[in-house]
TrEMBL record:
PANTHER family: TRANSPOSASE INSF FOR INSERTION SEQUENCE IS3B-RELATED, TRANSPOSASE INSO FOR INSERTION SEQUENCE ELEMENT IS911B-RELATED. It comes from Scrofimicrobium canadense. It comes from the Bacteria. Residues 3-68 form the Integrase catalytic domain. This is Transposase. Pfam families: rve_3. GO terms for biological process: DNA integration. InterPro entries: Integrase_cat-core, RNaseH-like_sf, Transposase_IS3/IS150/IS904. Residues 61-82 are annotated as: Disordered.
């Protein structure tokens, strides 16, 4: 018995999965499928650069055409849901 505690209570679990699925779809189609990595180091560097781009320069429709860094910055208030 490893005594592992699952932190998810089941509420909103399907919605969490939707966001992760969208992220991985973007990663695959915008980075992984476009580059033939020679090795793990190349993949690590390429994915690191992609996530830096994804978070700091790529605008997201669901965030009001802002980057995640801008949307979740502590300097800006988060928009309220209608």
């Amino acid at each position: 018995d490893a005594k592992v505690k699952i932190s998810m209570d089941g509420k909103g679990q399907w919605m969490d999965n939707v966001f992760i699925e969208r992220l991985w779809r973007s990663v695959k189609y915008e980075e992984v499928y476009l580059h033939a990595y020679e090795n793990g180091s190349g993949a690590r560097a390429g994915l690191g650069a992609y996530f830096e781009y994804y978070n700091t320069r790529r605008r997201h429709q669901g965030l009001g055409r802002r980057t995640p860094d801008k949307a979740y910055s502590k300097d800006q208030p988060l928009p309220h849901a209608a």
